[in-house]
Amino acid sequence: PWDLFRTFEDVSGRDLEWFWRAWYYESTHDGDWFLDHAIESVDRLDSGETRIAVRDRGWVPMPVHLEVTREDGTVSVEVIPVDRWLRGAARATLMLPAGPAVTRVVIDADRYFPDIDRTNNSWER
Q1: How far is 97 from 99, CA to CA, in rounded Å?
Q2: Is the pLDDT of residue 89 over 80?
Q3: Contacts for 77-81 with beta carbons within 8 Å, 24 or more apart?
Q4: pLDDT tens track for 97-118
Q5: What pLDDT score was predicted for residue 85?
Q6: Which of 4, 11, 61, 111 has its CA 20 to 30 A from that of 104?
Q7: CA angle 16, 22, 26 (to 5 degrees)
Q8: Does residue 9 carry a pLDDT above 90?
Q9: Burial class (CB in 10 A: 0-12, 13-18, 19+), 30
């Protein structure tokens, strides 16, 4: 697989050791490595900003794609980069600027990532 690994890294321009370790070496051998991102809290602050806290409950680092719906119907996709988890964090906070209230947040709405527990991937006001 080394040629494949190097090709992916050359094309992406990134060191993907974290990816190969999680998906190729660890998760296939002992079964203890899994992806589980969870919405911990969504709070509207007095300033009108919204604070979204996401918890990483698994051992597999992956970026978090959040689909955020506001009261006026606008939908945006916010991303917490994988680098956050690679630095050892177990929790990430995303601050959204003031605007209409957030009514719904969903992690990986398109279901691209193999999250082991999707029951904690959404929040609704």
Answers
A1: 6
A2: yes
A3: 78/52, 80/54
A4: 999 999 999 999 999 999 999 9
A5: 95
A6: 61
A7: 135
A8: yes
A9: exposed
Question: Could you read off the pLDDT of 12-63 as tens digits, one per residue?
Answer: 998 888 888 877 777 554 567 889 999 999 999 999 999 999 999 988 899 9
What letters, b where the CB count within 10 A reaches 16 and e where it falls short, cover 62-100? Answer: bebbbbbbbeeeeeeeeebebebbeeeeeebebebeeee
What pLDDT score does 40 carry? 98
Q: Which residue, among 41, 47, 56, has the nearest Cα to 94 in the 3D structure?
A: 41
Residue written as tokens 């506001």?
A: 70
HSE, CB side, 13 Å, CA atoms: give it for residue 103: 8
What's the rounded Cα separation, in Å, for the pair 10 and 58? 28
Q: Could you give the angle at the alpha carbon of 70 between the alpha carbons of 65 and 73, nearest 5°?
A: 110
Q: List the 91-96 sheet strands across, edge first.
A: 37-44, 50-56, 91-96
Distance of CA 28 to the CA centre of its chain: 21
